[in-house]
Amino acid sequence: MFQMNDPIFRIDGELIESHLIDKFNLRNFSRNLRFSYKKNSEVVNFVGFVIKDSDILVVLPKRYSNKEILNRSDIELLFAVLLTDQIRNPQKYTGPVKEFDSSFPFHAFYSIYSYFKQYGLYKESEKITISGYSGKISWKDTIKKSANIISEGNLIYLPLYVQETEDKHVFLSNCMAFAISFTLRTFPYFVQGKEPVEKFNHFDFWNNRAYVVNRLKKIHTEVFKDTHKRLVKDLIDFFSNCPEGGSISIKHYNFELVWESMVEEFLNGFFTGVNETGLHFSQKRHVNTPYKFNKAKYNVDKVHSQNRLEPDHYYLNNEVQFIFDAKYYFEVKGLNHKQVAYQTLLKKMATKTHNALILPTDTENRTSIHFDLKEEYYDNEEDRVKIFEYYLNMKGVMENYVK
C-alpha cells in the first residue's frame, strides 16, 4: 500500500513558507501565489491540494477552523466539496478563464467506480456463430449462410453453423481493476472504497498506454448497451489523462464561486426569515423550503444594457424581497456600496426589503449590522437602508453542502 507523509495544512490567503513554495513547485504557475501588501509577503492563492511524491499540501478555505487538530476528515471534506460543486454547477467551470485545475481524472474514476459498485467488474459476453459440427446448431445462421444441397431427395445445409459464447470481458476487467486500485492507493486521504477482489494481471498499463487507449477505442465501437459504452468511454478518459507520477494537483483559484453555491444551498435548506435582530435559521433542514433563493438579474439602465444588478441570492414575492450577497472575505472593510445600490434601486419591487452580506467564520454563526441609514436621511420607513452581516461557519456549511 502506498504510504503518504503527514499532510501539511495551510489556509487560502495566508502566508506560506518559502521552503514549501519550493517543495511543491508553486511558482510553476503564476496563479498559485499572490503578493499581499498587507502582509508584505506571498500568500497562497488557491484552495485544494498539491501532491508531490509522498508529500501533500492541503490548502483549506478562508476561515476554515484551524483551532482544532486538522486530520484526514478535513481532507475528505474539502475534496468532496470541490467534486460536488463541479457536478452540481458545471456551467461555472466553462469559459476562457480556468478556475479549477485537476491533473487527475477523478470524474472518470468515480464513474468507473460507480459502475463497479453496481455491476462488479465487466463480465459481458457475446454469442457468436462459427462453422462447425460440435455445439448447439444455430439454424437461423445455417439457413442464411449455408449452401443448399439436395442428397437422395433430402435438403442438406452445408456447412452447419454452431453457436458459441466468447468472453470479451478480460481486458476491460483488467482496465477497471487497475484504474480503481491505482486511484484508491494513490489517494488514500481522498477516496474511500474497496478494491476489486479479482486482481488485474501484471500487464504494464503505463508503458503501453497508447495500446490500451487504442484498444479501448476499438471496443467502444463493438459494445452496444449505453452503460457499457459509458464505461469504456470513462476508461478511455482515465488512461488518456491519468498522470503516471510526479506532482498531482487539484486546485480551485476562485473559491468564491464555491462559497456562493454553498451559501445558496444553506439558505434554501435552513433560512426562516429576518427581523430587527438579523437573519434566522432553523436547526433542521426544511422538508419544503418556504423561500427559494436564486441569482437575479435586473437591467436597470435604459442607456447601457450591460449595467445590470446581479444579487447572488435573491427572493421576491409581492410583500417582501431578500437581497443577499455571498462574500468570501477574511473580514469586511468599509461600506459595501453595491449592497446599498441594490436596495436603493430595487426597493420598489416589494413592500419590505431585507439586505445582508453573508460571510464565512471559523466560530459560531452570528449576525451583526453592516450599515443602518440615519433617520434624517429618509422620510418613510420603506426608504430605510439596513444591511446585516451574517457569518456562517465555513466547516459547517461545507458539511451541509456534501450531505
From TrEMBL:
Single GO MF annotation: endonuclease activity
Record key words, sorted: Endonuclease, Hydrolase, Nuclease
Name of the protein: LlaJI family restriction endonuclease
Organism phylogeny: Bacteria, Bacillati, Bacillota, Bacilli, Bacillales
